[in-house]
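3.2 Worked example (two chains)
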Amino acid sequence: MSASKHAATVPSQRLTVVTGVRGFRLIVRPGRGETYGLTIEETYGEVGSILATAVVNLTPQQTGRVIDALFAAMRRSGHQPSVLTFTRKAPIRLSEPDGVRLALILMATQPIAKHERVRVVVAGINAMSTEETYYWYSKCIGIDASRARKALRTLLSDD
């Protein structure tokens, strides 16, 4: 291809890029009484220009099953667990590694009803290295997400 033909095919304007870091935020959704559900969102950018997408939504019942993992993620991200209340309005920012680990826990345990199996899956994910959690997170939000989530549950709980 000649230089003149190549120059004609190159767009004249560049796409704008959102600068900043990737992170996660936890949004509390009030339930009945003093219960709450959660939405975890993956965010890109900094205050003022944030792009966000919901990764997983939990009902109040599902939230109750993984409350210890929620509190641990809050502590690792520099928050007191007491900020997680049913009256909370503002999103809670999580660091990227803690958000990835928590999102993976929430995705993997969401369809599980047996409390013992939930505990085994949470313990298995907590035992993973940061690199392993990133690998499984990428699989669990990718094209074959449902198959990857099932594979992760099977791997960790031997069911």
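3.2.1 Second chain
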Amino acid sequence: MLLRLLPFIGLLLLGLPVLELVSSIWLASQIGWWLAFWLFASALIGVGILKSWRLTTAWAMVDGLRQGELPLGRLFWVGRTLIAALLFIFPGPVSDVIGLILILPWPGIRSVPMGAAAFGQTPFEQPGYRPDHGAKNSSVFEGEYSRVDEAAPKLPRQPQD
């Protein structure tokens, strides 16, 4: 199915620069030199989106994996954001409109549970663990400790090279 659409996608990609040129000439005749400001501003927006894209990708993955999910919706959003940033950098009003449509929120693909989350557990939950094991509203924490003597002699510091 995808192979049948490939020639149409190729024609669309080849026709986009021509469409951009024609629309830029028409828009320049309508608004004048403001088009140059618009193209410069949209390129700066695209570069700004690309700079924040790396952090967005990392946090989307970490957040989804922390919840025990395969974040397909978040990855789809990050991919759309990358394509939108590249379209903002590409000069022309048509690519800016397409980039704006891509960056708007869509009702997307939900995350797919994986691992322990698929069985109703969080990824860090142990099978026999019950958080309400102690008395209700108890402020007692069980654990081990060791006392450190404050008057113990300190080790000499090594000189820094």
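3.3 Remarks
The chain has a mean pLDDT of 76.
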